[in-house]
Design brief:
By secondary structure, the protein is α+β, with helices and mostly antiparallel strands. The protein is about 45% helix and about 15% strand. Helix 1 crosses helix 5 and helix 2 packs antiparallel against helix 5. Bound molecules: flavin mononucleotide. Flavin mononucleotide binds next to strand 3.
């Protein structure tokens, strides 16, 4: 598939069929992430692939996270729907960045800058995954609502780095139209 075709065809998918994804396809998607550029080539990412029976443990974390939000009166917003999607999809890849930007202690400016750089790097790796999934005929969803079950997911996955996002993957059970984008003229200023 031409790169621009994959870019144009990719959609956020929120309805998945239950069919499992072949291991080779998952490896190709993770390989695409591995090859992404990163600030100082630090490759700050780590991925945890959750599928099969492990999804039940994930679902328990998601439910506990939402429950915790409700108890503190925190609005759960889009997270309820996002977690429904994560439970439905056959695969969720959790994406960690090695530096915790939520570190409570005061940090140096360079630490702050590096964590922003890491976040950009991880974003690039995630986009590589989405485009590879599109090329392979798989639906995907980039998820940041993992923050609503942050403590629960990190404890379960035994990761002490920053859980930045998740990507759900599976065969799409919907074919949404392209979502609107602003026109290029509104985004770009040309100088010279
Ligand atoms: C950083 C980021 C976080 C996102 N988090 C969520 C999420 O938690 N739940 C969700 O349903 N969609 C999430 N999305 C998907 C966006 O809503 C979607 O990309 C946007 O509406 C445009 O639609 P499209 O991807 O089909 O073009 C996220 C996208 C990005 C880039």
């Amino acid at each position: 598939m031409e790169l621009m075709t994959a870019i144009q065809n990719r959609r956020s998918i929120r309805r998945f069929k239950g069919d499992p994804i072949p291991r080779e396809a998952l490896v190709e998607i993770l390989e695409a992430a591995r090859l992404a550029p990163s600030g100082k080539n630090l490759q700050p990412w780590r991925f945890v692939v959750v599928q099969g029976e492990a999804r039940k443990e994930m679902a328990a974390c998601l439910d506990a996270g939402l429950e915790g939000c409700r108890e503190t009166g925190m609005p759960t917003g889009s997270a309820e729907n996002t977690f429904r999607i994560m439970k439905e999809a056959p695969v969720t890849v959790f994406v960690f960045s090695r530096r915790d930007i939520f570190h409570p202690e005061a940090r140096s400016v360079s630490d702050h800058v590096l964590s922003l750089v890491d976040a950009q790097s991880v974003g690039g790796a995630i986009e590589h995954m989405l485009l590879k999934a599109t090329e392979l005929g798989l639906g995907s969803l980039w998820i940041a609502d993992t923050f609503f079950a942050y403590k629960e997911l990190c404890a379960w996955l035994e990761e002490d780095s920053l859980l930045l996002a998740a990507v759900t993957l599976g065969y799409a059970d919907e074919a949404p139209d392209a979502r609107p984008r602003r026109a290029l003229e509104r985004l770009v200023e040309w100088r010279g």
